[in-house]
């Protein structure tokens, strides 16, 4: 299939699909006229990429994880992948803790401001 069909099947823009290729997440075959030729497995890969991006992973991590995933994004045994995923989870946990702390400061500030106005 050509890039337009892959874009339609996955709900991903052609520009983004070209970006995925540029960063090494997709490797479509090239026809003699330069057109990209994608397969059904590329459709699955794009959907996995989008899921992993939504989970907060960076493209450099996805490039490492993607070959080690199945259709349901369950990680198989690949050297270093679990460590990379654990590192990403720790980073997300740190960011979540920072957001929780910021939320508490905001709540306290709002509560103080509300009682001062009374």
TrEMBL record:
Q: Which Gene Ontology terms cover its molecular function?
A: DNA binding
Coiled-coil parts of chain: 82-109
What InterPro entries does UniProt report for this protein, alphabetically? DNA-bd_dom_put_sf (IPR009061), MerR-type_HTH_dom (IPR000551), MerR_fam (IPR047057)
- One Pfam family here: MerR_1
What keywords does the record list, in alphabetical order?
Coiled coil, DNA-binding, Repressor, Transcription, Transcription regulation
UniProt signal peptide = none
SUPFAM superfamilies in the record:
Putative DNA-binding domain
Q: What sequence ranges are listed for the domain HTH merR-type?
A: 1-68
PANTHER family according to UniProt? MERR-FAMILY TRANSCRIPTIONAL REGULATOR, REDOX-CYCLING DRUG-SENSING TRANSCRIPTIONAL ACTIVATOR SOXR
What protein name applies here?
A: DNA-binding transcriptional MerR regulator
């Amino acid at each position: 299939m050509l890039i337009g069909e892959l874009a339609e099947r996955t709900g991903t823009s052609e520009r983004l699909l070209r970006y995925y290729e540029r960063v090494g997440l997709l490797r479509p075959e090239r026809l003699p006229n330069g057109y990209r030729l994608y397969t059904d497995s590329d459709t699955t890969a794009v959907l996995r990429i989008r899921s992993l991006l939504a989970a907060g992973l960076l493209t450099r991590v996805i490039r490492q994880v993607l070959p080690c995933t199945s259709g349901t994004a369950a990680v198989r045994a690949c050297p270093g992948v679990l460590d990379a995923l654990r590192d990403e989870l720790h980073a997300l946990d740190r960011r979540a803790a920072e957001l929780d702390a910021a939320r508490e400061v905001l709540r306290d500030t709002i509560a103080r401001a509300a009682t001062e106005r009374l």
